[in-house]
Amino acid sequence: MKLHAQVALVTGSTHGIGRGIAVRLAQEGADVVLNGREDDAEARESLEQVRACGRRACFIAADVGRVEDCRRLVRESVARMGRLDILVNNAGVQTHAAFLDAGEEDYDRVLEVNLRGPFFLAQAFARHLREQGSGGRIINNSSVHEELPHPNFTAYCASKGGLKMLMRNIAIELAPLGITVNNVAPGAVETPINRALMNQPDKLASLLQNIPAGRLGRPHDVAGAVAFLASADAEYITGTTLVVDGGLLWNYNEQ
Ligand SMILES: NC(=O)c1ccc[n+]([C@@H]2O[C@H](COP(=O)([O-])OP(=O)(O)OC[C@H]3O[C@@H](n4cnc5c(N)ncnc54)[C@H](O)[C@@H]3O)[C@@H](O)[C@H]2O)c1
User: Fold this and answer.
1) Residue 12's pLDDT is what?
2) Per-residue model confidence (pLDDT) at position 1
3) Separation between Cα atoms, residue 205 and residue 221, nearest integer Å
């Protein structure tokens, strides 16, 4: 087991990629704090799946778009699990809007959840590790759109591009504390965030033509990359992005 006796906090883990990451880290031996905005049936399902791996787990409701919630999430995680070693900034949202029509609310919500949350969660987490006197891992779930433009998703691309530079900067500041900071950048993954796309056969077929591997990604594809970056094997890897996209990034033409 690669992550035995470690404790991981995975934001946005009530379903989708976040649930896949939480379960995979538990399979590698980690205890897991799950998070989402509400303690609902999906949150309880994630909790059961992690516990079924034989690990300790708890769920803490918090809106990562709010700085106070981010700080409370780290504080309560430590209070309930005793320590933290791994932070996975996974929660994310997107809105579809042409740049000329996008409103302030769309912009604020996307930037708050996708960029401000990871900034203040990483800060609270790193302060905790400094007090705890141990190193640790910060892994952000970014996107190929930290590099690749995506018309009508400008706020989303701005948030993921910002997450790339947040990661690179704090990798340098936190390395002396033994904390590594990296991004995983998925391509198109089968999750509820892509429900609209998956229900439009024409759009899906044209997207699949752009993916050399010939299929969408699945949560476990991303979870395996996160488990690697969280492990001792990745101790000397910091400030980088691991792209998990079946070849999409360098083969993509917007239709
Ligand atoms: N699915 C994809 O194709 C894809 C591709 C690239 C990157 N990503 C990124 O992966 C991450 C997860 O995406 P997904 O496809 O699993 O999405 P999803 O919509 O299926 O799940 C998002 C999760 O985040 C949680 N969440 C949303 N807002 C929150 C908030 N304010 N506070 C706390 N939790 C919140 C939701 O409850 C849910 O658990 C996101 O950061 C997304 O940008 C997804």
Assistant:
1) 98
2) 75
3) 21
Task: Please tell me if the CB atom of residue 65 comes closer than 6 angstroms to any atom of ligand 1.
Answer: yes
| Cβ of residue 123 lying under 6 Å from some atom of ligand 1 | no
Instruction: Give residue 113 CA to ligand 1 midpoint distance, Å.
Output: 10
* Residue 107 is among the residues annotated as catalytic for this protein: no
3-state per-residue secondary structure call for 188-216: CECCHHHHHHHCCHHHHHHHHHCCCCCCC
Mutation probe of ligand 1 site: the residue of 49, 93, 111 with most atoms within 8 A of C-beta: 93
Atom nearest to 38 CA in ligand 1: 37
φ, ψ of residue 113 in degrees (nearest 5): -75, -40
What pLDDT does 255 receive?
A: 62
Regions of the chain short of the pLDDT cut 50? none
Does the C-beta of 241 come closer than 6 Å to ligand 1? no
Measure the CA–CA gap between 255 and 244, rounded to whole angstroms: 22
pLDDT of residue 67: 98
**Tokens of residue 61, six digits:** 């409701």
Q: Under 8 Å CB-to-CB from 42, ≥6 apart: which residues? A: 14, 15, 36
Ligand 1 atom closest to the CA of 89, numbered from 1: 41
CATH topology of domain 7-251: Rossmann fold (3.40.50)
Which atom of ligand 1 has the smallest separation from the CA of 69?
32
Ligand 1: does its nearest atom lie under 6 Å from the Cβ of 140? no
**Which residue stretches of 9-153 are H helix?**
16-27, 41-51, 67-81, 104-111, 117-132
Digit-coded pLDDT (tens) for 139-148 = 999 999 999 9
Q: What is the pTM of this model?
A: 0.98
Per-chain mean pLDDT for the chain: 96
Domain boundaries, the chain: 7-251
